[in-house]
Each structure stands twice: as structure tokens, then as C-alpha cells.
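Problem: given the chain below (160 residues), write out its structure.
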Amino acid sequence: MYYFCLIFYQMCINHGINIMTIRQLSIFLENKSGRLQEVLEVLRNEKINITALTIADTSEYGILRLIVSDPENGYKLLKARGFSVNLTDVLSLSVSHEPGSLAKMLKKFSEENLSIEYMYAFSLGEKAIIVMRTDNRPKAFEIIGQNNFTLIGEDEIKNL
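Solution.
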């Protein structure tokens, strides 16, 4: 079954169709008071809901990563307001919200020498949702298929 998924995935990539990832807003922000609030106000004013968020920072700037209800519109609005923003394809997986489930999943990626560029997660009842970017998406899909991991699509994550 996973070979069919890989072939289907490759066909989608070849035709510019992206059905197995979610789109994330990545915003570069100066590390100064009020910049995060400005982003959140732009999204609030357009009734764009935030499902997940993480910030990685240095002393001078930060990278705000957001999963939102309308990534395309969020991107356009933030770009129009002068923010340095990108739409990034990331993987989203669901695992059991219990000790060791994330470690077990990541062990499979590690055994195949697949690097995780970044990851963040949140829990929702009995599920934990993992958002990650890898250095080799086709290989990641192969590992996901071989191990029957559960991918979460963009429509599903909007409805959490």
C-alpha cells in the first residue's frame, strides 16, 4: 500500500499538487516589543484563527511559525503590511498522547538518517499533533507509509 502512496505522492509533486502537507506561515520579526502583537492584530482583524504557533529567536530577530485557518490570505495580508513572510510546506502527524509515542516515531526517522530541520507539537485530548520539516520530504513519506503513521491534512488541522 505504501508504494501506491509514494507513486501518488510523486505524481502530485510532478503536477504541482500538494495534498499531503500543510502550509505554515513563517514570519521574520525584529526582536522588539510590539512586533508579535502587530502580526496577531493583522490576523485577528481578518478573523484568521491560529491553530499552532512557535517562536525561535536570537538577540536581534525571531522566526514566528504559525498554522492558521487561512494561510494563503494570511500570507497576502502580512506581505501587504510589509512583513517578511513565507508559506512553507510542513508535515503534520498525529500520535498518541502518551509517554514515548513521539520517541518511537522519531526513532524510525533516525534509523533512516532523516534529519528533522525543526519541529513543534501540541496535544489535543488523547492525540498529540506534530508539525515538522525534514531535509527529505519524499523519504519522510516513505517512512510514514512503511510505519503506518497518521498524516494530518490541512483541512483536518483547520477543524481542530
